[in-house]
């Protein structure tokens, strides 16, 4: 990777932020401005700061982030569509001293993987589930997802989603948060610097709770899909804040006392 | 008949389903078939028919695999992807026109025999664009009525139960015998294959779907070089054209099976040939499509008894 | 006096998504007229008022940005160490700092 020389020289300046060493050097394939990249980075910053790169195992989903294992420099498994939390369960049960997380999109976690998600949460597996919710199937070209908003246009809801044909957007995080096996449930975003900092805190807390065997930690990241939504990254983030946050409001839904 | 349009295979299939009166579609996004879902969501209309048509747009495997085309699901489609002694009628299109035409056939077959039908395509057929003309759908004659359907029980009849659970083994055997008899009837009446230069062929190629298009190219190239090659293209993969292959096997010096997998239909070819003549195989995996040149090379190797590069010694 | 900072971009990795440009409170960033090997107009620093606040790096999806900032704290010298505090503590400094 080339580095551009800064406009000013670096005399008297110290480095206060650089890319975490726990990311690989592989260029991300995600669309420009996609939230996946920020979440990957935040996860790996946390893993670097906690010094747990060698004791963490991640599970990748099917979806845009199916290639997550190319970017995160930790041992990882690929799960069949929807089953990342089941695979993560197996890893954690067999290697209970590792930090284990499943990383999934809304199609993976809340459509085909709904059963696994509910039951992993209900069993209170000591893992972190990271749920990227952009209300669409990005990888396959922008089809409707369970979390797609009413009225939202996708390739399989070309006239806008209606209750009659497709029911209501699914608020899976609220459902999962009611289960006693879940110790921590948070909804975050990555569209502003402050939101990114909140996400980092949530991730650090989750790894701490995992160490303390408190139960499952569930972090939803409300995110964008510039390609699927047919917007620029900036437009997508503004649209997300205006239209998705009313239904999926950021905040901590559940936290240990 | 509509004017010819240029359409993707997946879209042609979906348009044909609408014209055939499909009134319900249940699907999920996955490459290389998501266009079927999108087309039906946008263009679909309701009409009054109940059938079961399953479409598999085969991609490379195993597991998550790749999004490139493959024929690796032949076993799953024809030998049973599920539990018990059942068979699906399996149709294998080889062009965008057949992607459309076979939908009408599939609806009729499913209705006539009350059995699920699968269209087994591949990622190339689903994505490629060719001319397609849609004929008007006219349901086949002799489609039996459906008094067995669960539509709500009027006073005048006993209740309808649709189940596959039959705990008493004697009853289960009877049902299985009935199914097997149905499959024999299907095999007798519905087996389809296509012949290309087989009348005077000294060497026979057997291939289905996209592989048949490629094999056809190789046959033409072989003929130009003086090798009398022919192609038998199974159109129904169940019921399989055993009789046609057996007959031809008695007349040729060798059979070359071409597939986009590790060798699946070749087993059915060997069963049909039953040792009458040598059977060779040429296949590519991982989503790679063989070229007519490499098929020709395999054919020439068989004809000249040289060992070609990609042949599996099965 | 505002804190001085600067940023460096990994030019070939930047996808020109403009999220950093929007996040910069100093409006110091813009897309270059040039394109990188991927064909993207990459982000560049266009003013010299960067404070090294890290906002841009926080929102960057491709971890393209390295942030530098001057450290003023290193000029400070500790004058006392306080430990074992049990209650309220009053500290009186008895040197020229109190009476400049």
Outline the structure in words.
The complex is a heterotrimer of chains A (257), B (314) and C (100). By secondary structure, chain A is of the alpha/beta class. Chain A has one domain (35-254): Rossmann fold (3-Layer(aba) Sandwich). Helices cover 34% and strands 18% of the residues of chain A. Chain A has helices spanning 35-50, 84-94, 106-112, 114-122, 163-166, 172-177, 193-211, 226-229, 233-244; strands at 13-17, 56-60, 75-78, 99-105, 128-133, 182-189, 216-222, 251-254. A seven-stranded mixed sheet of chain A has the order 3-2-4-5-7-6-8, sandwiched between helices. In chain A, helix 1 (35-50) packs across helix 7 (193-211) and helix 3 packs across helix 4 (114-122). The model of chain A is unreliable at 1-7 (pLDDT under 50). Chain B is an alpha/beta fold and 314 residues long. Chain B has ten helices and eleven strands. Chain B has helices at 9-19, 34-43, 74-79, 96-113, 123-127, 169-190, 209-224, 242-249, 265-273, 292-304; strands at 5-8, 53-58, 89-91, 117-122, 129-132, 193-196, 203-206, 229-234, 236-238, 254-259, 279-283. In chain B, helix 4 (96-113) links the parallel strand 3 (89-91) and strand 4 (117-122). Chain B is globular, with a radius of gyration of 21 Å. Chain B starts with a strand and ends in a 10-residue tail after the last helix. The longest helix of chain C is centred in the N-terminal third of the chain and has 5 residues, at 19-23. Chain C contains two helices and four strands, in the order βαββαβ. With 100 residues, chain C is of the alpha+beta class. Chain C has helices at residues 19-23, 55-59, and strands at 5-9, 29-35, 41-45, 65-70. Chain C has a domain at 5-71: Alpha-Beta Plaits (2-Layer Sandwich). The A-C interface holds A 1-8, 10, 12-20, 23, 27-28, 30-38, 41, 190-193, 196-197, 232-234, 237 and C 4-13, 15-19, 22-23, 40, 44-46, 48, 50, 52, 54-55, 57-71. Strand 1 of chain A pairs antiparallel with strand 4 of chain C, so a sheet runs across the interface.
């Amino acid at each position: 990777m080339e580095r551009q020389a800064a406009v000013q020289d670096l005399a008297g300046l110290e480095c206060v932020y650089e890319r975490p060493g726990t990311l690989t050097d592989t260029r991300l394939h995600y669309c420009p401005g996609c939230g996946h990249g920020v979440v990957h980075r935040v996860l790996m910053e946390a893993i670097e700061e906690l010094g747990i790169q060698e004791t963490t195992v991640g599970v990748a989903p099917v979806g845009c982030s199916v290639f997550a294992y190319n970017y995160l420099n930790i041992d990882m498994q690929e799960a069949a569509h929807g089953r990342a939390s089941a695979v993560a369960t197996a890893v954690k049960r067999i290697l209970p001293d590792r930090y284990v997380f499943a990383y999934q999109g809304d199609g993976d976690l809340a459509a085909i993987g709904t059963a696994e998600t509910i039951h992993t949460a209900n069993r209170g597996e000591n893992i972190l589930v990271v749920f990227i919710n952009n209300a669409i199937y990005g990888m396959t070209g922008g089809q409707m997802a369970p979390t797609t908003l009413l009225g939202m246009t996708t390739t399989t809801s070309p006239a806008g989603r209606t209750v009659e044909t497709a029911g209501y957007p699914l608020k899976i995080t609220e459902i999962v948060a009611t289960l006693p096996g879940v110790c921590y449930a948070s909804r975050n975003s990555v569209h502003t610097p402050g939101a990114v900092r909140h996400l980092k805190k949530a991730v650090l807390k989750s790894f701490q709770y995992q160490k303390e065997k408190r139960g499952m930690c569930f972090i939803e990241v409300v995110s964008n899909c510039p390609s699927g939504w047919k917007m620029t990254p900036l437009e997508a983030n503004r649209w997300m804040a205006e239209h998705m946050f009313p239904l999926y409001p950021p905040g901590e839904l559940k936290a240990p006392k | 008949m509509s004017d010819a349009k240029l359409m993707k295979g997946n879209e042609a299939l979906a348009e044909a389903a609408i014209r055939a009166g499909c009134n319900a579609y249940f699907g999920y996004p996955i490459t290389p078939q998501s266009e079927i879902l999108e087309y039906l969501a946008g263009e679909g209309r309701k009409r009054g028919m109940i059938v079961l048509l399953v479409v598999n747009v085969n991609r490379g495997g195993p597991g998550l695999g790749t999004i490139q085309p493959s024929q690796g699901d032949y076993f799953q489609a024809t030998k049973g992807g599920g539990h018990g002694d059942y068979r699906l009628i399996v149709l294998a299109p080889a062009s965008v026109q057949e992607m459309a035409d076979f939908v009408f056939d599939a609806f009729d077959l499913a209705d006539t025999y009350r059995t699920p039908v699968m269209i087994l395509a591949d990622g190339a057929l689903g994505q490629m664009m060719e001319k397609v003309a849609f004929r008007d759908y006219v349901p086949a004659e002799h489609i039996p009525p459906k008094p067995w359907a669960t539509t709500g029980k009027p006073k005048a009849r006993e209740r309808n139960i649709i189940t596959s659970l039959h705990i008493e083994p004697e009853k289960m055997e009877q049902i299985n015998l009935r199914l097997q008899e149905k499959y024999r009837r299907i095999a007798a009446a519905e087996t389809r294959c296509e012949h290309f230069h087989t009348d005077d062929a000294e060497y026979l190629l057997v291939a289905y779907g996209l592989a048949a298009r490629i094999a056809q190219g190789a046959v033409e190239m072989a003929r130009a070089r003086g090798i009398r090659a022919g192609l038998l293209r199974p159109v129904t993969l169940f019921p399989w054209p055993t009789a046609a292959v057996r007959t031809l096997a008695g007349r040729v010096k060798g059979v070359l099976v071409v597939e986009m997998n590790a060798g699946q239909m070749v087993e059915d070819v060997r069963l049909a040939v039953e040792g009458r003549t040598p059977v060779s195989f040429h296949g590519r995996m991982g989503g790679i499509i063989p070229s007519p040149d490499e098929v020709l090379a395999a054919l020439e190797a068989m004809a000249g008894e040289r060992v070609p590069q990609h042949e599996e010694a099965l | 006096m505002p804190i001085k900072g600067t940023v460096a971009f990994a030019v070939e990795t930047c996808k020109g998504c403009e999220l950093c440009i929007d996040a910069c409170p100093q409006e110091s960033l813009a897309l270059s007229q040039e394109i990188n090997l991927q064909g993207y107009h990459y982000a560049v620093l266009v003013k010299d008022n960067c404070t090294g606040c890290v906002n841009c790096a926080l929102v960057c999806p491709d971890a393209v940005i390295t942030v530098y900032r001057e450290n003023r704290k290193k000029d400070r010298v500790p004058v006392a160490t306080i430990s074992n505090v049990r209650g309220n503590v009053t500290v009186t400094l008895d040197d020229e700092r109190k009476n400049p």
